[in-house]
Specification:
The chain has about 290 residues and is an alpha/beta fold. The chain is built from 10 helices and 12 strands. Among the domains are: about 1-90, Winged helix-like DNA-binding domain superfamily/Winged helix DNA-binding domain (Arc Repressor Mutant, subunit A, Orthogonal Bundle), CATH 1.10.10; about 160-260, D-Maltodextrin-Binding Protein, domain 2. The protein has helices spanning about 5-15, 20-25, 30-45, 60-85, 100, 105-115, 130-140, 200-210, 220-230, 275-290; strands at about 50, 55, 90-95, 120-125, 145, 155-170, 180, 190-195, 215-220, 235-240, 250-260, 260-270. The relative contact order is 0.14.
Length: about 290
């Protein structure tokens, strides 16, 4: 089968419409539609439901999408591996990362990597814990940066560094100048959750201490979270990467937790045996920059 049809189908799903897929591919909408119809005819099934608001997967489409993604991934792997045998590193790397890591680790890692391998395109996806793991499992991401508490699936894990969780409070909080913030003191506090309503690591810390804070706000945006804490709208818990620098503003305080809780930050791939040469070089670059920091 012509892989142009696979790409048209996958892009239509990921972008939400045939028109969006056509813009990415540089084809007309009619051409993309014909490619997908040709694929449906060959497979003897309907893959997409077309509507005014875009496209959605049929039951058949949901079952076949992961297989088609793997075919495209294998084709890309073939091309990249063949190039690697000739000493050329090229291709595309899809990276999924925590928000905090996207503005602390990622700029340095990507800059260093692309200086060595300018022909490799990097697509950076920033998301929540669940969405990062889902992208890795589904093949949407080649490599994911997060913490090993989410490693329920059997992927290959490369540790990078330990990151302590900390309390974040406004400068006028009664415990703002303490050396440690007892987790039990979150009980009843107005709490801002640093995720869309639920963060597994934070809830684990609170449950262990038998604490029930008053969760009044949740946000995925760490900048918004810090700004609200500065205004005295609540307190929170977060991993310390990317947070400590904000304490210099003098409006918030970063305090170690008591008892302490540490995240084991690192990167995961589905299998080190099957990743592309480009991903292996990206891993090597991340280990050199972060693993030794």
């Amino acid at each position: 089968m012509d892989n142009a049809r696979y790409r048209a189908f996958v892009l239509a799903v990921e972008s939400g419409s045939i028109r969006n897929a056509s813009e990415v591919l540089g084809y007309t909408s009619s051409a993309v539609s014909q490619l997908i119809q040709s694929l449906e005819k060959e497979l003897d099934t309907t893959l997409l439901v077309r509507g005014k608001s875009g496209v959605s997967l049929t039951t058949s489409g949901e079952k076949l999408l992961p297989i088609i993604r793997r075919i495209l991934s294998d084709e890309e792997m073939l091309r990249e591996t063949a190039a690697g045998l000739n000493g050329v590193i090229l291709g595309t790397i899809n990276v999924a990362s925590y928000h905090s890591l996207s503005y602390t680790w990622m700029p340095e890692i990507i800059e260093s990597f692309q200086k060595k391998y300018p022909d490799v395109q990097i697509n950076l996806y920033v998301g929540t814990q669940d969405s990062i793991v889902e992208r890795l499992m589904s093949g949407k991401a080649d490599i994911a940066f997060f913490n090993d508490s989410n490693m329920k699936e059997k992927h290959d894990w490369i540790p990078l560094m330990d990151d302590p969780m900390v309390a974040i409070v406004p400068e006028d909080h009664p415990l703002a100048h303490e050396k440690a913030f007892p987790v039990k003191c979150f009980d009843g506090e107005r709490f801002i959750m640093s995720d869309h309503g639920y963060d597994y690591d934070i809830m684990h810390i609170l449950r262990q201490a038998g604490v029930s804070p008053n969760i009044t706000i949740s946000t995925f945006d760490s900048y918004a979270l810090l700004s609200m804490i500065e205004r005295g709208m609540g307190v929170s818990i977060a991993n310390s990467i990317g947070i400590s620098a904000n304490e210099k503003k003098g409006k918030i305080r970063i305090i170690p937790l008591e008892p302490s809780y540490t995240l084991h930050m690192g990167m995961a791939v589905r299998s080190l045996k099957t990743v592309s040469p480009a991903v292996l070089k990206f891993i090597e670059c991340a280990e050199n920059l972060v693993g030794n920091s």
